UniProtKB/TrEMBL annotation:
Family listed: Belongs to the acetokinase family.
Taxonomy, superkingdom: Bacteria
Alphabetized SUPFAM superfamilies for the sequence: Actin-like ATPase domain
Protein name: Acetate kinase
GO biological process, one term: acetyl-CoA biosynthetic process
Amino acid sequence: MADRLVLVINSGSSSLKFQLVDPDSGASRFSGSVEQIGEPSSDVADHDAALRRAFDLLADDGIDLKHCGLVAVGHRVVHGGKRFHRPTRLDDEVIAELQKLSALAPLHNPPALQGIEVARKLLPDVPHIAVFDTAFFHHLPPAAATYAIERELAEKWDIRRYGFHGTSHEYVSQQAAQFLGVPLESVNQIVLHLGNGASASAIVGGRPVETSMGLTPLEGLVMGTRSGDIDPGVYSYLWRTAKMDVDEIESMLNKKSGVQGLAGERDFRRLRSMIESGDAAAKLAYDVFIHRLRKYIGAYLAVLGHTDVLSFTAGIGEHAATVRRDALAGLLELGIELDEKRNATGSGTRRISTDDSPIAILVVPTDEELAIARDCVSVL
Ligand code: ADP
């Protein structure tokens, strides 16, 4: 069969990441990003310019999108709301529905829609397909999906726990089962996706039963710039007493909080060197991050009752051995025994627990672009 390729586009407010993927072999033909979209110092004015720049980068590499076997363009869309939980072909009606969903994800869906609009214009002859970060968690059990707030209000405004990073949680859980050589249906798993955004999930037989993010990607773990769980009382207190308005509070919680808010630095590599040079704020930020992570691990072990495998993924999960060590230290009684040497070495999908550890601890590199590309061809 001739190569077929999918162009996967992840369009954020100030960056556009793209990758040309062969969904059959899993190979990436090209990956790139255009940063600083719309920033004063940048010559990339908007998403239209960004995508044109991306096409130039592909052309510089000898790739002509019109003659390379492109079968679809896959767009990562953060929020699918109640309606969208399958890869969905984008047409005007779907796009109009997605526009309405922007209220649920004001920081995330609008830039994706901009990317979709431009890409459809530049590549009108291939199907464009949206793949939703919420999709995998659509069937969370009601007890996990429901906020304990006034029911009529929640129903009227579609307030529930949606969960995000679903593409990654699903992919990693499949990879973990495959690596262990066991059927997905037979294992209980915890997946810890620790990147700039961070989330945890508990998965039974391939179906999610709990996840840490909620109505928006703000809930749950401490993240690079997001607070994660916080008493909603803080919100009203800041509004009433500090006279901050809703946009300021939302921006503070999403962009100026988390590890960045506590230490002035969100990158875990630099955070580590700050800790090593005695920076107390960096140490506290790290400790708060680890403490929250351990609380979630404990909670998910209890949610599952029996756990077979726990996997770390994304930038921090795949690369920060100290985070993995500190998150799991002293949990032998709960069935977790890390092998320090395995944890500190190796690459790719691997086991980092001892052979005797009742729960297998894995590192599993995520590949959201490949997962999106495969989702796309599944609906062609
Ligand atoms: P995103 O959520 O933006 O996709 P990634 O999954 O790429 O993020 O994770 C990015 C984060 O991973 C960085 O901010 C950094 O904190 C962390 N990271 C990446 N490489 C390393 C490394 N070698 N050691 C420690 N942390 C790392």
